[in-house]
Amino acid sequence: MQIQQITYNDLNQIARARKQRESQDLTDIDEKVQSIVDDIKLNGEPAVLNYIKELDGAEVDSIIVSDEEIQAALETVDPNFIKLLEEAKANIEKYHALQKEKSWYHHEASGVWLGQQVTPIERVGIYVPGGKAVYPSTVLMNVVPAKVAGANEIIVTTPVGADGKVNPLTIAASKLAGATQILKVGGAHGIATLAYGIKHLKPVYKITGPGNAFVARAKKYVFGDVGIDMIAGPSEVCVVADKTANPTLIAADLIAQAEHDEMASAILVTDSHQVATNVKDEVNRQMEERTRKHILQHSLFNQGAIYVVSDLQVGFDLVNELAPEHLELLVRNPFEKLSSVRNAGAIFLGEYSPEPLGDYWAGPNHTLPTNGTAKFSSPLGVYDFMKKSSVIHYDQDALREAANKIERFADEEGLDGHGASIRKRFE
After folding, report:
1. Among 96, 189, 326, 366, which one carries the catalytic annotation?
2. Does residue 377 fall inside a structural domain?
3. Residue 30 is labelled as binding a ligand
4. Is residue 113 part of a domain?
5. Is 325 considered catalytic here?
6. What pTM was estimated for this model as a whole?
7. pLDDT computed for residue 22 by the predictor
8. Is 260 marked as binding a ligand?
9. What values do phi and psi take at 138, rounded to 5?
10. Residue 298 is assigned to a ligand binding site
């Protein structure tokens, strides 16, 4: 990681450069994704089975995980880990229950009754990455808020192994969290299956969950036919540290995020040259102890950075331009600095609130906006699985009082049918 002294004038330039670091030619991926999605949309289940065989190297009799497979998975997983999943689920459930909105109605004036009806999205699809890795935490973070919202059907889809089976941990977490169905379909073909359905599976109304470039582009391609949560990029952490921060802990937290993949971004912003130097040395030392050293080297040396600022206010200005996915405040009195943060996906306060706490345990969602999108979007939540309808009621007297004004609007817009719709009620 390189140490760079920056000034206020560098902020926009740094933010632009970091946003562009992920830019790549997606033409080939888009062409493949469009072909897969269109094929499944047209041909349904036979096309899905072909892609499972071609892309996943597996042959399956059924796309849907059976009750017998679910029971076998539950018996396979360590009971102690099941207890951990149950505890994590309880924490996530408790936090997300606080997000649930209620319908409301207001008696505006005589004869006028207005409101907002809040209802759950009935059928949702959850994409869970798989293949070489397994992510039961991602299952919980997506299924639990959908369940809290009141979704009737929650369909999890995840890549199948070469043996035609889904990882037992994914099955166990899905069942525990409240999924109603589990599918053996990953990649772009998994997204298309959720979006357009197959013989015994109706299309969902919204898809959430992270994935690789093929999954992300497929979500973008089906958006409009179904809703999606976000287009997530590589994971990010930004640590703001003052001279009181512990370099050993900072280095450990940067490494924890960088080990996700080669494109993961780990950044330190500090007003202390000594902290910057010590963290750089600690990163090099601790990296030698980690099992994913080859990924860490690529991530930290190509995507990582240490920025030294003249004071923390400049540091927070940089943070708000970067709008990081994860932000750690390792400063004296972090609660006092919280108001300086305007753009971040999740904010971790103090040295005993490291980012992995949010990944697995605390309760807030770990599906977060990346690549600067925290400037305008939020973590996944119960609100992503609910929708709102406006409710309007006027009685005769109330409409009569507003009739002339409505007709004037209609006349000005040249929509005489709108005016007639009002006028005929009083002829």
Report:
1. 326
2. no
3. no
4. no
5. yes
6. 0.91
7. 55
8. yes
9. -65, -35
10. no
406 confidence band (pLDDT: 50, 70, 90): very high
**Structural domain span for residue 172:** 27-101+120-228
**CATH number of the CATH domain containing 63:** 3.40.50.1980
Is 385 inside a domain boundary?
no
Choose one of 176, 206, 228: the last residue of a domain: 228
Q: Is residue 391 part of a domain?
A: no
Pair 319, 347 in one domain: yes
Q: Which of 325, 328, 351, 355 is the catalytic position? A: 325
At which of 363, 381, 415 does a domain end?
363
My answer on whether 136 and 171 are in the same domain is yes
What is the model's pLDDT at position 23? Answer: 52
Q: Are residues 145 and 177 in the same domain?
A: yes
Q: For the segment 346-379, what is each residue's pLDDT rounded down to a tens digit?
A: 999 999 999 999 999 999 999 999 989 999 999 9
Q: Is 326 annotated as a binding residue?
A: yes
Please confirm, yes or no, whether 366 is among the known catalytic residues. no
- Range name among 90-94, 129-133, 291-295, 367-371 with the lowest pLDDT average: 129-133
**Same domain? 183 vs 59:** yes
Q: Assess whether 217 and 287 both reside in one domain.
A: no
Write the secondary structure of 313-343 as one string of H (helix), E (strand) and C (coil): HHHHHHHHHHCCCEEEEECCCHHHHHHHCCC
Task: Count the domains in the chain.
Answer: 3
Looking at the structure, tell me whether residues 305 and 247 fall in a common domain.
Answer: yes
pLDDT digits (tens, 9 = 90+) for 305-359: 999 999 999 999 999 999 999 999 999 999 999 999 999 999 999 999 999 999 9
249: left (phi over 0), alpha (psi -120 to 50) or beta: alpha
Q: Are residues 84 and 222 in the same domain?
A: yes
Could you give the percent of the chain with pLDDT greater than 90? 83
Question: Annotation-wise, does 359 bind a ligand?
Answer: yes
